[in-house]
TrEMBL record, chain A:
<protein>
    <submittedName>
        <fullName>ABC transporter permease</fullName>
    </submittedName>
</protein>
<feature type="transmembrane region" description="Helical">
    <location>
        <begin position="516"/>
        <end position="538"/>
    </location>
</feature>
<keyword id="KW-0812">Transmembrane</keyword>
<dbReference type="GO" id="GO:0005886">
    <property type="term" value="C:plasma membrane"/>
</dbReference>
<feature type="transmembrane region" description="Helical">
    <location>
        <begin position="308"/>
        <end position="330"/>
    </location>
</feature>
<keyword id="KW-0472">Membrane</keyword>
<feature type="transmembrane region" description="Helical">
    <location>
        <begin position="254"/>
        <end position="287"/>
    </location>
</feature>
<dbReference type="InterPro" id="IPR050250">
    <property type="entry name" value="Macrolide_Exporter_MacB"/>
</dbReference>
<feature type="signal peptide">
    <location>
        <begin position="1"/>
        <end position="38"/>
    </location>
</feature>
TrEMBL record, chain B:
<feature type="domain" description="ABC transporter">
    <location>
        <begin position="19"/>
        <end position="254"/>
    </location>
</feature>
<dbReference type="InterPro" id="IPR015854">
    <property type="entry name" value="ABC_transpr_LolD-like"/>
</dbReference>
<protein>
    <submittedName>
        <fullName>ABC transporter ATP-binding protein</fullName>
    </submittedName>
</protein>
<dbReference type="InterPro" id="IPR017911">
    <property type="entry name" value="MacB-like_ATP-bd"/>
</dbReference>
<dbReference type="Pfam" id="PF00005">
    <property type="entry name" value="ABC_tran"/>
</dbReference>
<dbReference type="GO" id="GO:0005886">
    <property type="term" value="C:plasma membrane"/>
</dbReference>
<dbReference type="GO" id="GO:0098796">
    <property type="term" value="C:membrane protein complex"/>
</dbReference>
<dbReference type="GO" id="GO:0005524">
    <property type="term" value="F:ATP binding"/>
</dbReference>
<keyword id="KW-0067">ATP-binding</keyword>
Amino acid sequence: MFFLSRQTVGRHRSLYAGSFVALAVGVFLLGLAATATAATVAYHGPASASISVTTLGGDGTPPQTVKVPLSDADVSGLQTVLSMVGTISGFITVFVIASTFAFAVASRRQELGLLRLIGATPRQIRRMVLGEAVVVALAASLTGAVAAQLATPFLLSKASYTELAPVKLEPASPWVPLAIAVGAGLLVAMLGARSAARRAGRVAPIDALREAALEPPRIGPARIVFGLLFLAGAITMLTLIRPSSDEGAVPLAMFTPMVIVIALTLLAPLVVPLVGRVWALPLVAWTQVSGRLARSNVLAAPRRSASLAAPILAISAIAGSMVLSLSFAADSAEATIRDAVRAPIVVTGAAPVDVAGVKAVDAGLPVQLVRVAADYAELEDAEGIDPGIAAQTRDLTELSGKLSDLTGNTVAVSKEMSGFEGYDVGDEIPVVFADQASVKLRVVAVVKNAFGVNPSFLLPLDLARKHAPDAQAERSFVLPADGVDPGELVKRLPGAQLAADWEADQAEGVRKGNRVGLVMLLGPAALYSAIAIANTLLMGSLQRRQEFVTSRLLGATPAQLRRMVLWESSLVGAVALSLGTATTVTVGVLIRHAMTAGVADVPVTVPWGILLGIGALCLILAVGSALAPTTYLLRVAAGETGVQQRE
Amino acid sequence: MTATAPAYPFTAPAEPPALLLDGITKTYRSKAGAVDALRGVTYHFARGSFTAVMGPSGSGKSTLLQCAAGLDHPTTGTVVLNGVTLLGLNEVELTKLRRAEMGFVFQAYNLLPSLTVYDNVALPLRLTGRRPARNDVQRVLEQVGLEGKAKRRPAELSGGQQQRVAIARALITRPSVFFADEPTGALDSGTSRQILGLLREATDRAGQTVVMVTHDPVAAAYADRVLFLADGLLTGHLDRATPAQIAAAMSDLER
Ligand SMILES: Nc1ncnc2c1ncn2[C@@H]1O[C@H](COP(=O)(O)OP(=O)(O)OP(=O)(O)O)[C@@H](O)[C@H]1O
Ligand SMILES: [Mg+2]
């Protein structure tokens, strides 16, 4: 059957070019993530910038000596981002490839039926489709890997000396990471091709005789069952996005849309016609024949429409949810910061505050310490504070223990940290400071979370100063003396701001950080989805040459056909976007509820511009890439029909 | 509606038939309602016979052919091809039987556009895992008058030539039964004559059995026998009839 595979790949160039591009770009992104990760793994910071720590051991793990890099040589931030980029890109790749192959098979029913008619067994058809996939996948994966290798130095030079990786990164040996990317690409292609091949094997010989060779409207019971299972999983995950999930809520808000997308895609041949019918109502009412034609084309081939809708649905649901969740997270951070600061004035910088009219200055010292556990050691941010003053300038409400006990080798931990690690008042936490001193810190209090204001570990000021003599305050909270007007005091203090202004700046900083994160996380996925959307719609239109020629012969004008394609692609786009919007809204509402519980007056910032931009872009891409080939085909067809009419 | 239609023809055959239809009914069910396309067809196609099936549009001719060839499952009744009952076969066994015993020619030429004429004709052999002998392929191409066109693609051939490629492809496996559904439906009379001549030759020279659905009395006159189908039932036959006789019978039927 390999003989046939080779020939048919040539024939269905547009179909396979689509699969090729989709897979090559996917492997390119995975490959880049992998080579960059390899570069961070290969990076060994200067010895002075890291501390050696011996883990505690126990529970069958022997104590180990590990090197913990201090923050100025830490590349773990970049690693985290890269792994997330890899995950999202990988997900979208699987997704796009599966629907691309499914589409390719759906477009070839008649030809596959003919092969069956003249004696091909279902098994031979399956092998043929798989064979084609292997040819395409090999070529695409290798191309993607080579491109990734070529682009790696550029990416690393861009990533070096940034907040995520404040060091110079050099390309590492590319063989292992690229082999992983190519392997992943082949695996993804084979998985996607396998289900497509199975469907191809079920094409009946009689399909060769059916004029339009429309796909059967039924979808397999297995697909429905899996679709429902994923839907149930998604609903379960949605119910977990609630106030009590605290820190789990944001990751949940990121991954739940993926599960929803899988569920909706599996059920799409059922869902798309349903939603399509609704959107088609105005279309049929407002247009003449073209809207009606578009409606029946979309509804009569639910599987094909579903394949076209899939990439739009995926990116709009995932990007929309992420954008909205992060914006709401920033809203809640803003409210938290606002509530956590009690002092009316904040001074930025290390300069000592010594002017008249000041009652107390809370100049906490930021230090870093390594928390040592049984089988790992982790760098943590801490702050040395004067509990007497700090309790007046910030919200340090004790949930248990007493903050006033914070003297000597003691620590107060945030509720979050106590929740994660199970710390209670009286527990001892072994830590190592930057000066290599090992100390056991006794927990004296658990205090309220105050992200953006207090780190998770609060130490006595003297302890911080002892182990980090060079540490300097980065910002101080200032209490004016009785009767002194803060507005007047601010003017006399260099580097001072009213607390409200400082809080607004902090919130803006959070949003800016989120934007950078979003661009890094969603950039590649969005780029890939854009290519996938254009890809499937291009493929879809190029396959319809015969239909266009026939319609032209029947007397349809090119303008009518273009309008029909315009309405068709808009209809598919609208269906996909409404499902994506439903996902975004559901996740957004839940995450908002989860994050604002117990905080009053949280501002609502909906990034309308970005959200509408995503939707508009999807729609423009979809319509554009359906119309362009149509126009081209119609021009070609104009020549052909002329010839045929003369005959 | 009579489910127990009488067997047709009424005499039992002398030797085992190439193809036996026994009480075939076919009901299509869809949202729009049920359609009884065949309502009880029993017939024996003798080995080496050339049979034309005629009838008004929608009378069930194509359905009959598809059920007989195992492309579609009859709702009730059995089909026996060379002593093998199609009903009991699974998809792979059915495919192998189709490969070995049946040839198909349809109105749409049904060629793979990406393959050359040679490769299209050789394809059924390749599907059986055999390497096609160049001579065999050349021989059938000569037989249908397409020597010298082996390297062309279907798009570079006329409709009649494409139809002859389809016949060559059906001939190469030496099937015992040919199924043809309006094989000349889209061809001019001269080209039609060539195609029908090829089918006639298959029965006369190789003893193959031909079942052909057609609308054209001239085409039907090439057959040994013309069967008339109306509303899913066999209603009569003509043996060795002229086109004029067939046309007269058809207009009776359509009245
Ligand atoms: N797949 C199908 N689903 C539902 N009804 C069908 C299907 N195929 C055929 N029919 C119906 O069955 C009846 C017989 O159809 P069939 O195609 O066998 O007719 P025919 O005699 O070949 O007609 P024609 O000469 O026009 O080709 C018709 O009423 C037709 O509408
Ligand atoms: Mg018919």
